[in-house]
Amino acid sequence: FIPVLTILSSGEAIQTGELRTKVRDRFYSHLPKDVLTQKTKSGDLLILNRVGWAKAYLKDGGYLSQPSRGLVQITPKGLAALAKGSLTLRELKEDKDYILCQQGKQ
Fold it and tell me: Whole-angstrom Cα distance, residue 12 to residue 54?
């Protein structure tokens, strides 16, 4: 989650696709080519798919917002998590905002 928050740390809203590629290029470009070109069953690049899932979790937890379709932006809560320097999936799933969001999807 921290790489996603880092890319968004300027507070500027950016396109989701741009976010995915910036995270890949900045944090994971050192990985072997076979890892970077691995695809999901649907044909999406796995690394970009995982960044997309991270964005979705962060949005559900209130760490990111979507000011308009296709754009994503860090929230004050996201900046606080970034300042802390870590955010695990367990912490996110135990977050009250995330829990409320998931309950609303049922």
Answer: 18
Residues of the chain falling short of pLDDT 70: 106
* Interacting residues of 101 by C-beta distance below 8 A, sequence separation 6+: 60, 61, 62
The token pair at 83 is 């300042």
Per-residue pLDDT at 106: 65
Token couple for 87? 């955010």
Backbone angles phi, psi at 69, to 5 degrees: -55, 125
**Which two structure tokens, joined as six digits, stand for 91?**
């912490």
Helix H or strand E encompassing 14: strand 14-15
86 half-sphere exposure, CB direction, 13 A CA radius: 3
93 Cβ contact list (under 8 Å, min separation 6): 99
CA nearest neighbour of 68 among 5, 8, 13, 18: 13
**Closest by CA position to 6, among listed 94, 61, 92, 84:** 84
